[in-house]
Amino acid sequence: MAKSLVIVESPAKAKTIGKFLGRNYKVKASVGHVRDLPKSKLGIDVDNNFNPQYITIRGKGPVLSELRKEAKKADKIYLATDPDREGEAISWHLAHILKLNESDKNRIEFNEITKSAITKAIKQPREINKNLVDAQQARRVLDRLVGYKISPLLWRKIRRGLSAGRVQSVATKLICDREVEIDDFDPEEYWSLSVMLRKNKSEFEASYFGIRDGNKDKKVKINNKEEVEKIIEEIKKEDFIISEVKRGNKKRNPYPPFTTSSLQQDASKRIGFSTRKTMRVAQQLYEGIDIKGQGTVGLITYIRTDSIRISNEAINSTDAFINENYGKEYATGGRQFKKGKKGAQDAHEAIRPTSIDKTPSAIKGSLTKDQYKLYKLIWERFVASQMKPAIYDTLSVKINCGINIFKSSGSKIKFDGFMKVYDISSKDKDINIPDLEENEKVELKEPNPQQHFTQPPPRYTEASLVKTLEELGIGRPSTYAPTIGTILSRGYVEFENKSLIPTELGILVTDILKEHFKDIVNEEFTADMEEKLDDVEESKIDWKEIIKDFYKDFSKVLEAAEKEIGEIEIKDEETDEKCEKCGRNMVIKHGRYGKFLACPGYPECKNTKPIVNEIGVKCPECGGDIIERKSKKGRKFFGCNNYPKCKFVSWDKPTNEKCPECNSILTEKVTKKGITKKCINKECGYKVKKKKAE
Questions:
Q1: How far apart are the C-alpha atoms of 77 and 290, rounded to whole Å?
Q2: Calpha distance 223→453 (Å, rounded)
Q3: Which CATH topology does 154-184+461-564 take?
Q4: Contact criterion met (CB below 8 Å) for 487 and 506
Q5: In terms of CATH architecture, what is 189-253+390-453?
Q6: Per-residue pLDDT at 694
Q7: Residue 417 carries which DSSP code?
Q8: Predicted local distance difference test score (pLDDT) of residue 592
Q9: Cβ neighbours of residue 448 under 8 Å, at least 6 residues apart?
């Protein structure tokens, strides 16, 4: 009979921890939250001090019966949910359901799922932290009041299925505001002028800076073609004389280890993961992977953190690893990153490997392709953070040509430092300049004028939106991925070439909220609310006081909006496609999985069909038309329009080009680095890569 019961959230975590604790412990999973506010109603007693009315989540009956059964058998119960506000709240709800005494020391927490961390946690149980619980309750109640009060209003005035939220509405507004900036942007012309200079057989490039004005160098902007042509005429008549040569060196310091936000951003940029995918794969690495010959173990520390702090134990073991594997010239003796972003809770360590000796290459065979990519990114970033800076030799040169001034600068890696592990060479390219001396004459080979136009701000990507939300103090590490998922699923924004663009619906809803609920979509108000929630955690303020203060004004605004907002009709976009059943022009509708065509004669005519996007390529298997489709998760793929009779599918876009080896068609995949073309015939294996510059 088990003497102790340990309750965690996920079955995967239960499986991993169970192997560490042995036969005297029974490890069970609550499978997430067990109690929550009801879905069918507000669930908050607004007239009775905003008391939340929690109920058991539907479908959790069997899980709770099992937990109660095991709790009766156990001499000791440990609540081992995640080490954050959400996890603390789940433990509190479990304590209520299992009728545990809140003052008992039955709460344990750990930052990593390793045998040593679990064993240590079992020896150091504590009481449930009610401040953490209250901070979570405050967020939950606040979000419920906003969502369940504004959303029905949107249903009545626009259409069902819409929603508003404290964080999601601000995120949508940011995307909408950026689109307005882009639409309103008026490009301005400007020119750049570079010259190719020669010393003997060596050539180097210099850029126009400005003019010599008395004893000062004055930077000059070239506004048009006439101005650049005038400068070119002037420099053709004068000698290019080296007036100043400066040699030196510069350091490039390593990045700190990952927080949730920086992991999501880097995973997006480097390995093309969405925020949702990053968190899903990271959760798998945290909860435990079965490593061949070693058993199941958590490979990384807790994944929801805004801290860049590292334990001394991890620093020391990593320093020893660097000394042994890269050499003492790369080791720092240990580096602690103490300063995080303003407002960081700093409750947990940064995201790092639980064991530095589990190198990505050593455990690659036990990981899926995605797990390996993300683990490698985390491992390399952390090891690099403990290595010495990269050192560059630098050279900057000033060249006078009459009154005109040109400048050239270059750098060369002297010591690669942390870049030996975490490659950023694409950002720092070596630029070679020949050895030059002051007062030396160099020869003009050719001028290169170029016309430019100022560019509008770029649309948000998932990575840049996460970065902006973090900088503004909106949301917390656990909210970024679900927030982006929500605004996509609601149809407020959509992807276009990996950028987030607002839909007509998103713009409409945002405009309504901006007019009638200014605070809800105000970045400063939302960030200030996050700080107040942090104050609850630190016991500086009672959580119900925050709700009272908020609701006092919110209820008045809500009442006014109900009267002022008239019913808004969103007209469906009409197409040229004829309904084959009744002859009407079909319209574009928005559904759970995106856009589709529907007959406007509903309910008399219920005809619907998918929107077909032909790519002008014939199916290699049956000769039908290949069309662009979307999976249930929104991922684009290509298939035959004769499905299900023809099962041809391809993730990469088919082309009309023929394979030079087997005459099958080629597919192409476009990335930031270039285009990869390969044969559709897997037995052939023909593949060619072209870099973007080509």
A1: 27
A2: 10
A3: Topoisomerase I; domain 2 (1.10.460)
A4: yes
A5: Distorted Sandwich (2.70)
A6: 41
A7: G
A8: 59
A9: 193, 194, 195, 196
Q: Choose among 404, 455, 2: nearest CA to 210.
A: 404
Joined together, the tokens standing for residue 178 give: 């950026």
Q: How far is CA 394 from CA 197, 245, 397, in A?
A: 19, 11, 10
Write out pLDDT tens, residues 353-398.
Answer: 999 999 999 999 999 999 999 999 999 999 999 999 999 999 999 9
Residues contacting 378, CB < 8 A, separation 6+: 258, 263, 282, 285, 300, 351, 352, 353
C-alpha span between 187 and 286 (Å, rounded): 47
Residues 6+ apart with CB under 8 A from 39: none
What is the rounded CA–CA span in Å between residue 210 and residue 232?
13
Least Cα distance to 50 among 554, 529, 393 occurs for: 554
**What residues contact residue 380 under an 8 Å CB cut-off, 6+ apart?**
360, 421, 422
Mean pLDDT (the chain, rounded)? 91
Residue type, 143: D
Q: Are strands 55-56 and 202-213 parallel, antiparallel or unpaired?
A: unpaired
How wide is the angle at C-alpha 613 spanned by C-alphas 612 and 616, nearest 5°? 125
Query: Residues 185, 456: contact at Cβ < 8 Å?
Result: yes
Q: Residues 440-473: pLDDT tens digits?
A: 999 999 999 999 999 999 999 999 999 999 999 9
Checking if the pLDDT of 191 tops 50, the result is: yes
The token pair at 593 is 């999985």
Angle between helices 523-537 and 543-564 (to 10 degrees): 150
Q: Which of 450, 447, 400 is nearest to 205 (CA)?
A: 447
CA angle 469, 474, 475 (to 5 degrees): 100
Q: How many CA atoms, within 13 angstroms, populate the side-chain half-sphere of residue 305?
A: 27
Q: For residue 354, what are the contacts with CB-CB under 8 A and spacing of at least 6?
A: 112, 113, 114, 117, 297, 298, 299, 300, 301
Closest CA to 460 of 276, 265, 185: 265
CATH of 260-385, one of 3.10.450.120, 3.40.50.300, 3.40.50.10190, 1.10.290.10: 1.10.290.10
3-state SS, residue 633:
coil
- CA 174-180-181 angle, 5° bins: 90
Domain map (residue ranges) of the chain: 4-128, 154-184+461-564, 189-253+390-453, 260-385, 655-694
| Burial category of 656 from C-beta neighbours within 10 Å (exposed 0-12, middle 13-18, buried 19 and up) | exposed
User: Per-residue pLDDT for 429 more than 70?
Assistant: no
Which of 265-269, 342-346, 429-433, 646-650 is least confident? 342-346
Torsion of CA 227, 231, 236, 242, to 10 degrees: -160
Q: Does pLDDT of 542 surpass 50?
A: yes
Is domain 4-128 given the CATH code 3.40.50.140 in the classification? yes
Q: Which residues are catalytic?
A: 302
Residue 575, both tokens = 């197409």
